[in-house]
């Protein structure tokens, strides 16, 4: 049985649209767990009223993404999940999203799979996976290298984001859950999929499954939209900071090949210290 786990905090309109899209799936054989981490906008009441079939796990208000998704995964595994799909609330699933994810999951039962992401407004691809070089600290964007005739099926990648990540239960048995202690918010998904890949679980982007996203709603985009010294501090040290130096250090020490760690850290620190103001 597939369980879909969605951590949420407020932003009910996004959660409602996401859940409506799941109700319209061509493959309805799954269960949904929403981890409501102390929402104050009526999310809990709306969930009970509009989506009684959805199981709600209550949070403390301090879970952030990683502990929130872990709480849902634990509950799913307790109920016998053989696959878990982690989903952010600010996404809309194409009607055949689950069907196309399970199509490849059944053929690649040990693989972790992520979907092709499209801009919800324009329907243009915005994320199609990447292959990362630890030596040069550069990413090869598959959207930029794959021709139109190649944009289908599975393509191997270095890691995957957690918004639409399909995970076999065997992965949790082998490596545990997401690292909520060291990576409470950002990089936990890239870390988890990188660790899984090193333990022999293939990691693929699935170009046949489409997820609609709101690129402008990411925490990093909102922080950079109104640049300030306070925002810069949050960028580097806040739990939700996309350039959090502590989180990056943990990620590097866990995943970078040991001989490359010093160079990788220096490169990464420089990018984070300067990138907040340089990048649009």
Automatic annotation (TrEMBL):
Residues 4-110 form the Glycosyltransferase 2-like domain. This is Glycosyltransferase family 2 protein. Belongs to the glycosyltransferase 2 family. Gene3D superfamilies: Spore Coat Polysaccharide Biosynthesis Protein SpsA, Chain A. It comes from Hymenobacter lucidus. Keywords: Glycosyltransferase, Transferase. InterPro entries: Glyco_trans_2-like, Nucleotide-diphossugar_trans.
């Amino acid at each position: 049985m597939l369980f879909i786990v969605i951590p949420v905090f407020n932003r009910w309109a996004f959660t409602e649209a996401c859940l409506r899209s799941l109700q319209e799936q061509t493959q309805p054989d799954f269960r949904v767990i929403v981890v409501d981490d102390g929402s104050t906008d009526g999310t809990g009441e709306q969930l009970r009223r509009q989506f009684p079939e959805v199981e709600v796990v209550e949070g403390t208000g301090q879970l952030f993404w990683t502990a929130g998704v872990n709480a849902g995964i634990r509950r799913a595994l307790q109920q016998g999940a053989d696959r878990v799909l982690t989903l952010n609330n600010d996404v809309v699933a194409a009607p055949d999203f689950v069907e196309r994810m399970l199509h490849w999951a059944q053929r690649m039962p040990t693989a972790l799979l992520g979907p092709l992401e499209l801009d919800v407004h324009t329907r243009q691809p915005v994320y199609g996976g990447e292959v990362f070089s630890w030596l040069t600290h550069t990413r090869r964007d598959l959207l930029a290298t794959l021709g139109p005739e190649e944009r289908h099926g599975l393509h191997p990648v270095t890691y995957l984001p957690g918004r639409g990540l399909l995970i076999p239960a065997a992965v949790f048995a082998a490596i545990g859950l997401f690292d909520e202690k060291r990576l409470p918010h950002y990089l936990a998904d890239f870390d988890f999929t990188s660790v899984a890949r090193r333990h022999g679980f293939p990691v693929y982007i699935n170009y046949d499954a489409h997820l609609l996203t709101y690129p402008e709603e990411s925490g990093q985009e909102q922080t950079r939209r109104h640049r300030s010294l306070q925002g810069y501090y949050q960028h580097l040290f806040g739990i939700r900071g996309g350039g959090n130096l502590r989180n990056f250090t943990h990620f590097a020490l866990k995943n970078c090949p040991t001989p490359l760690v010093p160079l990788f850290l220096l490169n990464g620190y420089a990018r984070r210290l300067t990138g907040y103001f340089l990048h649009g």
